[in-house]
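Dissemination and training. As part of the outreach component of the grant, students in the summer workshop were shown how a complex can be specified as a set of sequence lines and then modelled as a single object. The example used during the hands-on session is reproduced here so that future cohorts can follow it. Participants entered these lines:
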Amino acid sequence: MLDLAIFATLVVIGYIVGRILEARHYKSIRAREQDYGDIMLFASRFPPTLNPLRQDLVAGSVVVSADYFKTAVARLQGIVGGRLKSYETLLDRARREAILRMKEEARGRGSRMIVNVKFQTFSIPGRKPGSLAGVEMLAYGTALLD
Amino acid sequence: MLVTNLEIVPGKRIGKHLGLVQGSTVRSKHVGKDILAGLKNIVGGELKGYTDLLKEAREEATTRMVKQAESVGANAVLNVRYSTSSITQGAAEMLAYGTAVFLE
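and obtained this result:
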């Protein structure tokens, strides 16, 4: 009974605080995406400009954690399968954050173009077997300066 | 040393291919950070400690790769890739690899 009470409390805290934090994060992401809108990303392997002055490897990464509510929902949903909306937004936030950090590094070097952008996702296992401590999202590419 | 994930360097010619170079490091989590991460798992959000840990590890792997490239006489590493894998519950390996070349 006590276990259930603790579990319920954590789920409620996770839901309320997690939602607030997520909304705040999305707000900050949108604002910064506007700000960094002048930096273009290309997934192509070859640079669109022929003679860049310089090229630098730039990267952005972030490790995010799911909240208790998301974890609980995901576990339940795992029984029936299908779309895990709670994790979708988590990974979306992480990827956009990683892109923004990569763009920040590019801007610091005076570049406005990143080519050959690659993404990599790495899940960090938690202490309990099968649990998830966090997910690392990495974005990297070559920033061109011309 | 030019480090890039492009396969060509515009305006430069590859004089010599010097083969694959790589650098890697295995890092383990700090117990304190682990406990903090456990708390963070309740409300969610960024695990700053882990972000920095993996970033440092990636930088070290890159540095080691660059050192190897220097030792074979390269002045650039092209087509650089990163790879991460978890070894055990508390440790991860970070690998950086690419092709060492001499640009003219």
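Residues 2-35 of chain A form the longest helix (34 residues). Students were then asked to discuss how this feature might be tested experimentally.
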